[in-house]
Amino acid sequence: MSAQRRVTIRDVASRAGVSRAAVSLAFNNKPGVSDATRARIIEVARTMGWEPNRSARALNRHGTGAVGLAICRPARQLGLEPFYMEFISGLESVLSAHSSALLLRLVRDVDEEIELQRHWWQSGQIVGSVLVDFQERDPRVPALSRLGLPAVAVAHPSLAGPFPALWTDDGAAVAEAVRYLHTLGHTAIARVGGRAELGHSALRGAAFEDTMAELGLPPGRQVDTDFSGEDGARATRSLLAGAARPTAIMYDNDLMAVAGIAVASEMGLRVPHDVSLLAWDDSQLCRLTHPTLSAMGHDVHAFGADVARRLLALLTGETQPSRAVRAPALTPRASTGPAPHRAD
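and the corresponding structure tokens:
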């Protein structure tokens, strides 16, 4: 698939048969071109997919360029989610050192992101992007690669298409967590996951199923959520109110695990005496709860910084092969313990 070269003001001027100055006058609604010429220039630019760069780009003249990041999350939820706060902090720590800036936007869906990335790139507001939350057969891959947009994918290479990928081995981490709970005597283990269409959620779900089968355990129930505390609480309540109540629950982020502790208390269950809970990402939240949360964690700030460094290297023409960073590691704390003895 060949990349589409970014259209420039020179291209528009040539196609319209005018000077670059005339294109600038037309788009800034300044005198110097006739109404007919202005209309022709604007129509030519529209058909070519060119837009003027009206952004300050958050740069000084020595800067590298602004980097785009679009996230499909409600604003209130994003502010509560430790992973993205740490990840963005890591990105900024590197970008700011290169006089660059992060252009962050929340979007409703993948179609809105494609249009946003197209607008950012063609109008010159960004020099590249960080792409997150990949779906299986993600429509962003063909659309944005055709644009020639330089980008680093935070995803498994099987999801990232031609974009260089940086990822954590979530499958290995899930397997470690299941085996740890099994050594504590747990055989009824459940998982509260993220959105089913997300690639990393699917990879974690498959690893959970495979490891349960490998250990000779009955299939554990998995519940999909939107990653919010509210949805995590609903999922926990559903699991703990069921006839076959799990003795251990794994969560796909810290926020839902914290909500799980509250639900267990609400239902008169003691953590970990009656049910063990295990979180993901290991933010400060895990050490502030009571009991403290066992978690699969990695240095998310360092991960974000590494993603930014790889994108900046890509922009200088360096080849950036896809690679995995260290898999999340288990930190046991007070929320996990031996499986309770049951009369049945």
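(Above: one complete record from the training split.) The mean pLDDT is 89.
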